[in-house]
Amino acid sequence: MTAHHEQHDIATWTTDVLVIGAGFAGLEVARALGRAGIPAIIVDRRNHHLFQPLLYQVATASLSATDVAEPVRQILRRHRSVQVILGEVEQVDATLCRARLGGGELIAYRHLVLAPGSGHSYFGHDDWAAHAPGLKSIEDARSIRSRLLVAFERAERCTDPDEKRRLLTFAIIGAGPTGVELAGSISELGRRTLAREFRTIDPAAIRILLIEAGPRILAGFPDDMAAYASDSLECRGVEIRTGTPVSDIGPEHVELDDESLDVGLIIWAAGVRPSPLAAQVAETDRGGRAIVDARLMVPGLDNVFVLGDAAACPDAEGNPLPGLAQVAQQQGRHLGPALVAHIRDGHPLPEFRYRSRGNTAIIARHAAIFHHGRLKLRGWIAWAGWALIHVYLLVGFQHRVLVSAQWLSRYLTGYRGARVIDEEVAEKAPLRAGPSSDA
Amino acid sequence: MTAHHEQHDIATWTTDVLVIGAGFAGLEVARALGRAGIPAIIVDRRNHHLFQPLLYQVATASLSATDVAEPVRQILRRHRSVQVILGEVEQVDATLCRARLGGGELIAYRHLVLAPGSGHSYFGHDDWAAHAPGLKSIEDARSIRSRLLVAFERAERCTDPDEKRRLLTFAIIGAGPTGVELAGSISELGRRTLAREFRTIDPAAIRILLIEAGPRILAGFPDDMAAYASDSLECRGVEIRTGTPVSDIGPEHVELDDESLDVGLIIWAAGVRPSPLAAQVAETDRGGRAIVDARLMVPGLDNVFVLGDAAACPDAEGNPLPGLAQVAQQQGRHLGPALVAHIRDGHPLPEFRYRSRGNTAIIARHAAIFHHGRLKLRGWIAWAGWALIHVYLLVGFQHRVLVSAQWLSRYLTGYRGARVIDEEVAEKAPLRAGPSSDA
């Protein structure tokens, strides 16, 4: 009992500001606190900050995992007042101003900045997760990459035409920007890069299905831009099924309302779910996001702030802002200095106003859409706009020039060098022979 | 019975040359066959060729895994007569000229080039493998990298001084070039790169032990050069224990003859064991390597050749050549064109003569040894010689310039960006709290 008692009562660490999550939002806040020399602790389950907008390029073998992941300690090494802890926050007690880590340690804080991000939502079908990985972490990206490449390798070896057809059928569930990017990128990988490397695979036999429950793809974009994206994808051999909810997912098949598809790989890009920590400190909206006011503050708790994907923060019209990297980063850049002024001089906290830098979806090389207010761009020019935004967002990455150069060169040449198949995946999905193995 | 029967009698593929293993030796042979348009199949368990000499830099977070792994298909894509198969050869029947894959497929060949490489040897203690990973594959390197970084992360969080000391004690078993390179690189990582990033770790508390059963380190080098390496390592805080066999290894400890060490990480660099396929086609020496003649041919089988780590090939004095990348590569470059001339025009196969380009061991930045005949180099100049050899060996890597530039910049600046901790490892070795978790 004593040990248990101790564990709950004596804080292992005490800090002015506890930041949970080293994503775009949390990192910006930690940086501002560090610059001001305010004691802070930042906790993340990973030792790295992840540049999520380029994660799909890891999943499709254009970039290496370490290209889009930078150690949190590396980023914050000059900020001596900030301590980085690798760990998982299991519980937050906003009344006692304490957070508990998985190891049992308690962190007592004066201010809490909660920016834990989001995971996947399988809409109540958590058993689908094993068959249809999503794309949120380095492990997710590596898993998709390995499964994708193994499907091609198995197809190359396969002598049964039906099995070969199945292996070369890829289903992407959800046609938001991530789904569209994955579909376009897999199409290029299969028809351009890999086509010349296999001997028994006909590139025309590769089938990519983009399955969306809603009435059209890219719901966040205007109609005409989504139509352009649809056409571009179809030109690249992607079959689009809108208004088509998925009713079941197995290891090698996807059930639609009226059809059962045998597939070699399923990727989930349909839904996200904010971290459950959001609900521990605030009321949540229907999507599980913590309701905060325009100062990013939890109503009734003037020392708790929620940022990024886990927050339902109102825009000027009172509608919640979308879960985008640029929203999270701007929130962090807003709150960081504001919190410093508040802690040091008691300044009141100003309201956050989001300034969109435009929305982009990449379809393939030479094809992208960029939408910013009344500005609508397509094709090359949209792709260039996207590249600019991403180089700008890559601030903080020591090797941003190198990564950009690498990525650009691979993007232009179609070279996909980052094609390591992980052993675990290769073993889980052993290569099978043709007909004889069915016996 | 029918299916079984079929599986054993009907070859799935028939080829002029079957190459097993896409390492330095196998790849060179496949390239020569491809250039000549001779039908060949190359089989490897991995989809990538691995640049093993730089693998320790992946394990110590200097290079990314994909920097040292290039897809085999990519390398051979222009050689239309060569088919690449991802798979594991389980059995070779040299009498019937057939090889069987794990999936059951049979490959019938006219000539066999066996270059399957080697794995670790734990000298009969295979249970040590789980606690002391070796360094042969991408997975090995990632596993060591994750365990190493997790040890530092746990130490940073740890409030128990004894546990902290244990976590920061690293044991490397085996003081050949790989052991020396790992010890030097871990010392630099801990004392140089990570030192400025942690808040509670005293760099002087980091303990690195290099444990060797033999009388001195670097048995393959002259005495004075090994002595120089010893001094250099000791300057960098590495403790060297020669004449010290290991009697037991557990998850957190190493037993020596006279001492039990509590350690945070153990790395195995002590012994290798050739692939068991070697013994299926030839008599083997004490080390399990296939005995071949100077033409790399198995005595009595004039269509079977064994190359690389799995072969005991005699040098001019009749002593077996060492298991080095440059030996394997030269054997491949020798046999490839010779086999083409033999198959096409019935030319006799010439004998292989190894021409050493010199042996190098890297201790740290500014410190290396290079030995070639009577030439002995130390320090910067040796390091430069090593870099030249490796750039030369990197031929075939499309991005060799980029990798060299990256590696050079990271080597010079001490930046270790490739510091992704894999989730599996983080979960297997969960972060623990200080004293309270011992309850």
TrEMBL record, chains A, B:
This is NADH:ubiquinone reductase (non-electrogenic). InterPro entries: FAD/NAD-bd_sf (IPR036188), FAD/NAD-binding_dom (IPR023753), NDH-2 (IPR045024). It catalyses: a quinone + NADH + H(+) = a quinol + NAD(+). It holds the Pfam family Pyr_redox_2. One of its GO terms (molecular function) is oxidoreductase activity. Its EC number is 1.6.5.9. Residues 16-332 form the FAD/NAD(P)-binding domain. Gene3D superfamilies: 3.50.50.100. Belongs to the NADH dehydrogenase family. Keywords: FAD, Flavoprotein, Membrane, NAD, Oxidoreductase, Transmembrane, Transmembrane helix. The chain crosses the membrane at residues 380-397.
